[in-house]
């Protein structure tokens, strides 16, 4: 397995990212990232970054995913060749299962069209981008409570059937919350109502940052709820 920590993009790629306008929507499984990105991408200001992944297409809200819509589905060899050829800005190995990475060509498109590049990126990937482009906007989506989080995970991905998969996702979510709280790189938005969340994100893009204290409190509550839930499943 390749180690993402050993990867560094070329100077040419760094300059491409440095000149890009970027908005990342971040958060654990079940926070509604794909739905938020889908809605925002209908606005002509944005270019949706299509992530490359080695995971297989799956049912998403009952519809089978298609290559090139949310993800570029590639084999492990194809992905590792992309890494070796410098075709990714960054990549990660997620849930101890699959590679996910951000293709360079997506930023070539957004810069050429003078659009804001919008994507779902893992927390470690966000750090890679911020080192290159500190002006990157990073929104961390939160569910209003654990019950909503779990219902979204099962509703969206009907292949989440085994306990180990769910446990891996929940443990990863705790790690992501801890990173988000410790790095201070994120603006938190609660996705309890889609239209309200979208309005808040647009206000953030206009420079209006909402109060964060209640959201930080919510994160700590979610962590406690997840840890208790993990004890009983």
How would you describe the overall organization of this protein?
- The protein has 233 residues and is of the alpha/beta class.
- Helices cover 47% and strands 20% of the residues.
- The protein has helices at residues 11-18, 33-41, 76-84, 104-112, 123-132, 146-156, 163-183, 194-205, 213-232; strands at residues 21-26, 46-48, 51-53, 59-60, 63-64, 71-73, 88-94, 98-103, 116-120, 137-142, 187-190.
- The strands form three sheets. The protein has a five-stranded parallel β-sheet, with helices on both faces. A four-stranded mixed β-sheet has the order 6-3-8-7. Strands 4-5 form a two-stranded antiparallel ribbon.
- A hairpin with a 2-residue loop joins strand 4 and strand 5 (63-64).
- Helix 7 (163-183) packs antiparallel against helix 9.
- Largest sheet report: 5 strands, parallel
- Report strand order across the widest sheet: 2-9-1-10-11
Give a count of the beta strands, DSSP E runs of length 2 or more.
11
Structural class: alpha/beta
- Count of helical stretches: 9
Determine the mean pLDDT. Answer: 91
The end-to-end span amounts to 30 Å
In the CATH scheme, the class would be Alpha Beta
CATH architecture: 3-Layer(aba) Sandwich
């Amino acid at each position: 397995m390749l180690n993402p920590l050993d990867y560094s993009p070329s100077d040419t790629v760094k300059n491409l990212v440095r000149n890009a306008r970027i908005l990342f929507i971040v958060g654990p499984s079940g926070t509604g990232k794909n739905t938020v990105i889908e809605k925002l991408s209908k606005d002509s200001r944005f270019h949706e970054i299509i992530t490359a992944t080695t995971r297989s297409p799956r049912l998403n809200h009952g519809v089978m995913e298609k290559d090139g819509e949310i993800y570029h589905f590639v084999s492990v060899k194809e992905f590792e060749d992309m890494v070796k050829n410098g075709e990714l800005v960054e990549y990660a190995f997620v849930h101890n299962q699959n590679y996910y990475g951000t293709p360079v060509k997506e930023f070539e498109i957004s810069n050429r069209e003078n659009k804001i590049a919008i994507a779902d990126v893992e927390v470690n990937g966000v750090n890679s981008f911020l080192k290159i482009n500190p002006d990157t906007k990073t929104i961390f989506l939160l569910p209003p409570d654990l019950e909503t989080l779990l219902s979204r995970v099962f509703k969206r991905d009907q292949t989440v059937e085994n306990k180990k998969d769910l446990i891996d996702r929940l443990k990863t979510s705790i790690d992501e919350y801890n990173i988000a709280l410790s790095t201070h790189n994120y603006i938190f938005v609660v996705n309890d109502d889609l239209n309200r969340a979208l309005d808040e994100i647009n206000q953030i893009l206009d420079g209006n940052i909402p109060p964060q204290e209640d959201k930080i409190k919510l994160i700590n509550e979610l962590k406690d709820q997840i840890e208790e839930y993990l004890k009983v499943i």
